[in-house]
Structure formats: structure tokens, C-alpha cells
Amino acid sequence: MDTGTTSATRLQPSDVEDYFARVPEEARAAIEKLRKTIKAAVPKAVEVIWYQIPTFKLNGRPLISIAAFKNHCSLFPMSYAVLDAYKDEIKSYHASKGTLRFPLDKKLPTALVKKVVKARIQETQARKQ
Q1: Strand order in the sheet with 53-58
Q2: Cα–Cα distances in Å, from 79 out to 42, 70, 96, 125?
Q3: Quick one: three-class SS letters along the chain?
Q4: How many whole angstroms separate alpha carbon 85 and alpha carbon 80?
Q5: Beta-carbon neighbour count of residue 2 at 10 Å?
Q6: Please, which residues bridge with residue 62 across strands?
Q7: Do 62 and 54 meet the contact criterion of CB atoms below 8 Å apart?
Q8: CA distance 54 to 80
Q9: What is the pLDDT of residue 129?
């Protein structure tokens, strides 16, 4: 039976809640904790799907994105400068130029996540001026 939906369309989440509904059980608690931590740090942010992952926008601009994977959750601060500013604190996590990975079997460093989010807020506000 043809539903009129292509396989590419089925793979893409329709919205943030759809994304979270698709997260594998083993990653669900970790990604929800990451989401909750970001929401607490920036309650005025709007959640959207951007590049097929949940993204928090502030004042219409992308601030930070997150994603769940089989063995980790990723935080995408969209800023090399922010990650570089916290390079000493992120040493024990896998980090690349644009991603910070948190293993599912370790406690989420909520204080670090909040610092990164707040740094991104400051960075985006400075760009507006």
C-alpha cells in the first residue's frame, strides 16, 4: 500500500516531539536530561527541528542543538570559540570542533552544559550589537 511518503520523508522527524519519540530506549533518559538542562538554562528558547535534529533557537537564531545516538548524546554549540573556552573542562569527553559527546553510561555534566549554553547566549547577543 502506497501512503505517498518517500523513505527520505519517513526518516526525517516531523517535529521535536517526533524526534524524541524515535530515540532508542537506551538513550532516552540521557537526551531528555540534556534537553531539560538546556531548557532550564534558556527558558525563552524555542525548540525546532533544524538539520534533522532538535535545535534551540533564541530570538530566531540557532543557539544549540542536541542529538541522541546508540552510545552517547551530542551537544552541538555551533561555536568553536565556546568549546575552546571550556577546553580544560571538556577534556574527559570526546569533543571535536563542533560537537561535545556525553557517553550514556556516565552522569551528564549539567553544570558544564549550562556554562556552554550561557556562553552561546552571550556570543549570539554580542553578534546582534
Answers
A1: 46-50, 53-58, 61-68, 72-76, 100-103, 94-95
A2: 17, 24, 11, 13
A3: CCCCCCHHHHHCCCCHHHHHHHCCHHHHHHHHHHHHHHHHHCCCCEEEEECCEEEEEECCEEEEEEEECCCEEEEECCCHHHHHHCCCCCCCCEECCCCEEEECCCCCCHHHHHHHHHHHHHHHHHHHC
A4: 9
A5: 4
A6: 57
A7: no
A8: 19
A9: 61
Q: What is the pLDDT of residues 38-97, one digit of tens each?
A: 999 999 999 999 999 999 999 999 999 999 999 999 999 999 999 999 999 999 999 988
**Which residue is listed with cell 530506549?**
25
- Predicted TM-score of the model (pTM): 0.88
Q: Are 109 and 102 in contact (CB under 8 A)?
A: yes
Chain length of the chain: 129
